[in-house]
Amino acid sequence: MSANSPLEETSDSSTKDESQDLASLRSELNAIQERLSTESDLEPITPEEAAEIYLEDRREDLVESTVQDYRRSLDFFVKFCDLEGIDNLNNLSGRTMREYRAWRRSKSSHKTLSPKTMRDEMYLMRNFLGFLEDIEGVETGLANKVQTPELSYEDEVREGHLSKDRANEIIQHLEEYEYATAEHVIWLLLGALGCRRGGVHSLDLEDVHTDRSELFIEFHHRPKGGTTLKNKKAGEREVNVSEEVAEVIDDYIEHNRIEVTDDHGREPLITTTHGRMAKSTISKYIYKWTRPCEIGKDCPHDRDPDECEDAQTIDSASNCPSSQPTHNVRKGYLTAERSNNIPIEMLADRCDVSPEVIKKHYDQRDKTDRRELRQEIYEEVYGDSRGGYLS
Prior knowledge:
Layout: H1 6-38, H2 47-58, H3 64-84, H4 94-106, H5 115-134, H6 153-157, H7 164-177, H8 182-193, H9 197-202, E1 208-209, E2 216-219, E3 237-240, H10 243-256, E4 271-272, E5 275-276, H11 279-289, H12 326-339, H13 344-351, H14 355-361, H15 367-382
Antiparallel strand pairs: 1-2, 2-3, 4-5
Helix pairs in contact: 2-3, 7-8, 8-10, 8-12
Protein name: Tyrosine-type recombinase/integrase
Pfam families: Phage_int_SAM_1 (PF02899), Phage_integrase (PF00589)
Region (Disordered): 1-23
């Protein structure tokens, strides 16, 4: 067939038309994609505005202390956005959130965050971004791009706590050198009751009963009065105290407590010249006294206390590698009580914590230890290990 046959000319014309059609379709698709990339239903929002709107939305469901914890976490995100020049969250991407995750873990503070802390931080970010998706502040699907660390059981359980020996050393030191001061009483309440920092902060004079044969302290949820418990009304309870602890509290009230009322006209147990002692100050006293050098111990980090920056002021105490937060005192208390075979149900009521959490985080005994404890309890109740229908 010749090169100029009618059949070949028709074939060439058809191929040319198809190429033109494909080029036209590509052009239209490119135009659509360009319009989609430039046209957005998102409403511009700054990091600061987003954080405030989110916190206000969550305030109905959370106690104020949790709202403030969230605020501190989101402050890191706002700071990151400022460092990166991000003033409109419409522009956030999965890559940006990955960069934030790396920055938050190792560069946002003086020490690398633990896997559990990072998990909590990233869960908050996913919730935060999901909320912003709903109000058209970020692209749909961004929250799902936030990676949350997967923790093993060992990671979840392996959390620091203040040992019973260290706690006793600190309390003995306070009894000798800081007797019946606010700091001494704070340590006794945390160390003898296993309560949370918020519980100590919430106590009023009327909650302390040390003038009768039954010595106990009441914990109340009073949101209208400016103090809250983590589990709200469900966290209200009466907790017995020993005669020794009651005596120290009485001496504190009589000799060292500053007689003031708070902003709600209440009489707090732990006071300063300005009223009720702040939770942050309570934390500082725990960081302060968990520094080994503060109670005359040698520094385990080979530092000279006279030159160590972390040993100079109470505000820098939290930077000491050996200092511990208030929650570790509570965890140490629960761990010690489980080692002493105190039943989980009793601890759950006393410390306002679920039996499941106690079993997972504070019960380190093996199955033989647990069997022997059950044997002791059955023998105490029934005289042997039968029980049930056979008793």
